[in-house]
Amino acid sequence: MKVALFLEEAGLEYEAIPIDTKLGDQHTPTFRAINPNGKVPALTDGDAVIFDSNAILLYLAERTGKFLPRPDAGSAARAELLSWLMFVATGVGPYSGQCVHFRLFAPERLAYPIKRYDFEARRHWQIVDDRLAGTGHMVGGTYSIVDMAVWGWAPRIPFMLGDEAAMAEFPHIARLMAEIDARPAAARARAIETRHPFKGDFDEAAMRNLYPQIFAPDPATARAR
Ligand SMILES: N[C@@H](CCC(=O)N[C@@H](CS)C(=O)NCC(=O)O)C(=O)O
C-alpha cells in the first residue's frame, strides 16, 4: 500500500500485478526472479528491479525527486531521513509482524513471545508517536516517504496489537494517518486491492504458503537425520 501511495501521489503510470500470497504466488520462479525473498511488494522499472518496500520508496523518491525532503547524499539531514526510514523497516515492521504472528498464528500460543513482541511493537510505535509530536511529520517538517512508510503499517495498529483502543495511545500517529487518508492518492491506492479477487480463506494451504516453518521438521530432528 505504501508503494501504491507513492505511485499515486507522484502521478506515475504503473501496472499493479496481484501476487496472492495465500495462494503462494510469491513462491513462483517468475516472482522469485524479481524478489528472491519471496515477499511483496516488488517493483520493476526498466532495468531496475527493487524489492523491500522502503527500498522501493527511496528508489522512487530519488528517481522522481519527490517526497524526499533530505536529498543531499552524505549530509546530516540525509542521515536523519535514512535513520527513520530504516527504523520503520527494521523495527516497526518486523516487531509488529511478529506480534501478530505469535498472538494469532503460532501453533502454540506461548506467553513469552506474545509478551516480548507486544512490548517491542508498542515501544516502537511510541517512538514514532513521540517523533510526530514534534513537527507533525517524521522528517523535514513535511510529508515524505517516511510518513508513507508509517502509513503502510499504522492503520493496522489495533489489529496488530490486538487492542481496539490502541490508537488512543498514539494520538500523533492517529492525526497523521487521518491527514494521509484524506488525500485522494490514499483512496486511489486503497482501491487497487479491491480490483483483485484475493483468496480470503486462511486455510491449511494458505498457512503452508505463508508459514511453511509450522509444517517443517523441528530443527534438532532435521539435524539428527
Ligand atoms: N521487509 C519487507 C517485508 C514484506 C512482507 O513481509 N510482505 C508480506 C506481505 S505484507 C509477504 O509478502 N508475505 C508473504 C510470505 O511471507 O510468504 C518489505 O517491507 O517489503
Main β-sheet description: 2 strands, antiparallel
| Helix/strand structural class | mainly alpha
Number of helices: 11
Round the Cα radius of gyration to an integer and report it.
Answer: 19 Å
Q: How many domain modules?
A: 2
What is the residue-averaged pLDDT? Answer: 96
Q: How would the global form be characterised?
A: globular
Q: Name the quaternary structure.
A: single chain
Q: Secondary-structure element order, as H and E?
A: HHEEHHHHHHHHH
What percentage of the residues does DSSP assign to strands (E)? under 5%
Instruction: Name the hetero compounds present.
Output: glutathione
Give the low-confidence spans: none
Question: Mind telling me the CATH class of the largest domain?
Answer: Mainly Alpha
Describe this structure in words.
This protein has 225 residues and is mainly α. The chain folds into 2 domains: 1-66 and 184-216, Glutaredoxin (3-Layer(aba) Sandwich); 70-182, Glutathione S-transferase Yfyf (Class Pi), Chain A, domain 2 (Up-down Bundle), CATH 1.20.1050. It is 57% helix and 4% strand. It is built from 11 helices and 2 strands; from the N terminus they run ααββααααααααα. It has helices at residues 2-10, 29-34, 53-64, 76-105, 111-135, 145-151, 157-161, 171-181, 184-194, 204-210, 219-224; strands at residues 42-45, 48-51. A two-stranded antiparallel ribbon has the order 1-2. Strand 1 and strand 2 (48-51) form a beta hairpin. Helix 1 crosses helix 6 (145-151), helix 3 (53-64) packs antiparallel against helix 6 (145-151) and helix 4 (76-105) packs parallel to helix 6 (145-151). It is globular. The site of glutathione has 11 residues, from helix 4. Residues 21, 26, 38-41, 52-53, 89, 93, 210 line the site of glutathione.
